[in-house]
Amino acid sequence: MNRVSLKKYSYFLKTLEARILLCDGAMGTELQARGFTGAPDLANLEKDGTDKVMGIHTDYLEAGSDIIQTNTFGANPVKLKSYRLDTKTADINRNAVETARRAIELYEKRSASKTPHFIAGDVGPTGKLLEPSGELKYSQAVEIFSRQIEVLIENGVDFLLVETIMDLNEALAAVEAVRKISDIIPLACTMSFSKNGVTIMGDRAGESAGRLLAAGCGIVGANCSIGSDSMLDVVKKMRDSRPDARLIFQPNAGLPIVKGERTAYNETPEIMAENIKKYLSYSPSILGACCGSTPAHIKKIAGFIKG
Predict the structure, then answer these.
(1) Of the residues 114, 129, 197, 271, which has the maximum number of CB atoms within 10 A of its CB?
(2) What does DSSP assign to residue 134?
(3) In this structure, which CATH number among 3.30.43.10, 3.20.20.330, 1.10.260.40, 3.30.420.150 belongs to the domain 3-305?
(4) Residue 158 pLDDT level (bands cut at 50, 70, 90)
């Protein structure tokens, strides 16, 4: 790992120690709202899609986000194979990092911002169940994650965010993939729990946090699945089980409501911000939002974090 990367990672961790960092919100539902009809990751291959992603990144930066996530949630070779684009894995991930970097550079130049902004290399689940629940072997999951993660690291993300994982074994495979490539890049992992702090695979929040930290993940938490009010119980469980850990939380904007061909969510920016404000009692390191959230939600959350 070169000296530039080491300095980059150290700067991110130093900033994280100094204050709570605000991540961005949803990408998929925002792309849908802006008229992009394909799978979100495919937007990285065409100008119209890239322009829309760039606009979303910019809107989140203007709303107050310190961190923007690359548009790569489903950009692993297994998921991309369903579009016959697994051979484009490197291109899609590389383009996504470059789009995020350009958005930050242009925003900082235009706004003369002195506040640092960071790029999270976003890594979602493989889309396959691991043994014994499914047919995917643990070693295969490590290889799948490695192909995406290597490109994200090579193209200069500030840290990696493995998210929306519902199986602890899959999360551990992602952590192993990261640590085989780099033993120093900051790594966060968020799993998706029900309100009672258990995933659909039966993994408990406290135990999962401990296993992930022991495996080499520096920041652990929860995202997706439930709204900001319901996630408070998970926040409590994680903090109680890991008093000294760095924690990250990104709830959905409430419950999904299907409206024709679109899906809306029932938490307004004001409701979500009031709920997430309660998380501050548990000393999180990073806060953000997930499905259904918008720049307006992030702006409301920024109002009390920045203050």
Answers:
(1) 197
(2) S
(3) 3.20.20.330
(4) very high
